[in-house]
Design brief:
This protein has 610 residues and is an alpha+beta fold. It has 26 helices and 17 strands. A 6-stranded antiparallel β-sheet has the order 2-3-1-9-8-10. Strands 4-5-6-7-11-12 form a 6-stranded antiparallel β-sheet, covered by helices on one side. A 5-stranded parallel β-sheet has the order 15-14-13-16-17, sandwiched between helices. The longest helix is centred in the middle third of the chain and has 18 residues, at 230-247. It is globular and about 80 Å long. The two termini are 29 Å apart.
Length: 610
């Protein structure tokens, strides 16, 4: 895993000094080595975290034999050995996947993208064609930001490295900020910064003297559904996930597993135990009110792993500024805190950690898919009946009654509007209370675009596609990449293997969510891998106690941040105070709203006010 950057300018030539400044901003992504190439209109910068071929032969920027093609690469190509065997008469100087990719580009040009199986973001300066080629992996595991300005085209793994270029402005993108209030993240390709964008998953770009052109080389389809029965599909799924796990165990450095005690990480642990020649190292974390350590211990005992667990009591005020600095874009998912901590403790022992990320999106593992199903059914109930039901339930002081009221209320609207409350934070009046700027034409535009572009035959297929296109790359994978790379730790997930994702998309929805049971086919395929204690448990997730924090230790901290945010255009100071007051008095649970807004002010202070 590494950090990449560079600049192409056909006017004023970019300097090696800029490359040094960019590389310095990415030290955490690559503490082992750095390098800069600058010649003519192109400059490339690199920071290296050594995973394959730890020798100096693996350093970047890396050039081909005659020095006409240079590459900076971030990620892992898991099938690089197979691809190397299929290449022509090349003399390899290293054992890296980077050199394989370099020669693949020489041999096949942009067609090489379809051959890659892995996670990546890279830049290739082709001196022969006088063009820069950029690409990002299919699911968006590795970041790639850019600024296309009058003074040249700058790109990087991090926004901080882009801002090392004086030609890149530090201005907030207000429509993106408004979208952040809705989603708790900034939907791509926006970043929250004006004039800084990101290449989207499955895209490549070509930059030359005529400008920048972006195209898509991969998209996910749910259309061609399998007709085989569940038994046959379970057997094929088992083979697919086993292969994806085996490929992700290729490493020249210590490797372990993030073990939550859930179904996905349990399966990964079991598969790795079959392949590994030594004991598997597993890492689990207990976090205040969130604690799944008992489940993780059960799995560790089952597979006799070298298990390490930590219980942390986070100091939110201390870690929050560091989280904002690492995440760079406005980012409000509170589970970034435990992900940051587990990455920190694991990095003391290992350099690569395997996870179960994306199992839920592939196989319908979230509770919200059940709630959405119930909401769709509630939509068939006449409105007067639903209104009467809300009135009766409103008098019942119980959490289950509140959930039922939500189902009846969310039943209004179209399919996207019904689903949105289960994944969005501030919608409509909740956001308008603190926002006085221009209103979006459709605050659910990112979700709606993904849903409408989905080609699956059922509503669940289209919802899963929506999550794979939005929530997965813009929230979960951002969280995983930034938290791990803050500690120079690489994360890999077999569930993000694009061949497995394509296979999962073709499994009929009735075998994913079946009679209320989530991940039905996945659990059937790996029933013998999952201890009984884990089999029937519901998904818990990282329950960060933000509601309690903002009624207690963080109340005054939030007040201070709201004082500052309320002085910024277009935020409403009275609306901010009213939201905090209602929460602290216990009239409503608005902790997640407050968390998003506090982090947003910290983002302004960290990146915009400098």
């Amino acid at each position: 895993m590494c950090g990449i950057g560079g600049k192409v300018s056909f006017g004023d030539r970019p300097s090696a000094d800029l490359g040094d400044r960019m590389a310095e901003q990415m030290t955490h992504r690559g503490p082992d080595a750095d390098g800069v190439y600058a010649n003519g209109p192109a400059m490339l910068a690199h920071r290296r975290l050594s995973i394959l071929d730890l020798s100096a032969a693996g350093r970047q920027p890396m050039a081909n034999a005659d020095g006409t093609v240079h590459i900076v690469f971030n990620g892992e190509i898991y099938n690089y050995r197979e691809l190397r065997d299929g290449l022509g008469d090349y003399s390899f100087r290293s054992e890296t996947d980077t050199e394989v990719l370099l020669h693949l580009y020489e041999e096949h040009g942009l067609d090489c993208l379809s051959m890659l199986r892995g996670m990546f973001a890279f830049g290739i300066w082709d001196e022969r064609e006088e063009r820069l080629v950029l690409a990002r992996d299919r699911l968006g595991q590795k970041p790639l930001f850019y600024h296309d300005g009058d003074d040249g085209f700058t790109f990087s793994s991090t926004i901080s490295a882009l801002l090392a270029d004086d030609d890149v402005p530090r201005r907030p993108d207000l429509p993106a900020i408004r979208a952040y209030l809705t989603y708790q993240y900034v939907p791509s390709p926006a970043t929250g910064f004006d004039e800084i964008r990101q290449l989207e998953p499955g895209e490549y770009a070509v930059v030359d003297d005529d400008g920048m052109r972006i195209d898509t080389y991969w998209s996910l389809s749910y259309r061609d559904q399998f007709t085989a029965g569940p038994g046959e599909l379970a057997d094929k799924l088992r083979k697919k996930l086993t292969e994806a796990t085996r490929l992700r165990m290729r490493s020249d450095v210590p490797l372990g597993v993030f073990l939550s005690g859930g179904v996905d990480s349990t399966i990964v642990t079991g598969l790795m135990d079959e392949v590994a020649e030594t004991d598997i190292e597993t890492y689990s974390i207990g976090f205040g009110e969130y604690d799944e350590l008992d489940y993780a211990r059960a799995v560790a005992r089952e597979y006799d792993t070298d298990h390490t667990e930590y219980t942390v009591t986070p100091d939110a005020m201390a870690v929050l500024p560091e989280l904002v600095r690492q995440y760079e874009m406005p980012f409000g998912d509170p589970s970034a805190i435990p992900t940051y901590y587990v990455s920190q403790v694991a990095s003391d022992d290992i350099t690569v950690a395997v996870t179960g990320d994306a199992g839920d999106e592939n196989f319908a593992g979230y509770d919200r898919y059940t709630y959405d199903w119930l909401t769709q059914r509630a939509g068939a109930v006449p409105e007067p009946v639903r209104e009467a039901g809300r009135t009766v339930l409103d008098a019942v002081p119980h959490e289950s009654a509140d959930r039922a009221i939500g189902l009846l209320t969310n039943a209004d609207g179209d399919a996207v509007e019904r689903y949105a409350p289960y994944i969005c934070h501030m919608q409509g009046e909740d956001a308008d209370e603190v926002w006085t700027g221009p209103e979006p034409a459709d605050e659910l535009a990112a979700l709606r675009r993904a849903y409408e572009n989905a080609d699956g035959p059922t509503h669940l297929d289209r919802i899963l596609h929506t999550d794979v296109q939005t929530y997965l790359p813009d929230d979960l994978l951002v969280k995983a990449d930034r938290a791990s790379m803050a500690h120079s730790l690489e994360l890999r997930s077999p569930f993000l293997d694009h061949e497995l994702v394509e296979f999962a998309a073709r499994i009929p929805a009735k075998y994913k969510w079946r009679r209320g049971e989530k991940k039905w086919l996945l659990k059937r395929a790996f029933e013998d891998y999952i201890p009984e204690a884990v089999q029937g448990r519901s998904k818990q997730g990282f329950a960060v106690p933000v509601n309690a924090w903002f009624r207690g230790a963080l109340r005054e901290y939030a007040r201070e941040k709201f004082d500052a945010l309320g002085s910024r255009d277009p935020f409403d100071r009275r609306g901010l105070d009213a939201k905090l007051d209602r929460h602290t008095r216990g009239e409503a649970d608005l902790g997640y709203h407050i968390w998003d807004l506090v982090l947003l002010e910290q983002w302004y202070e960290t990146f915009i006010d400098r």
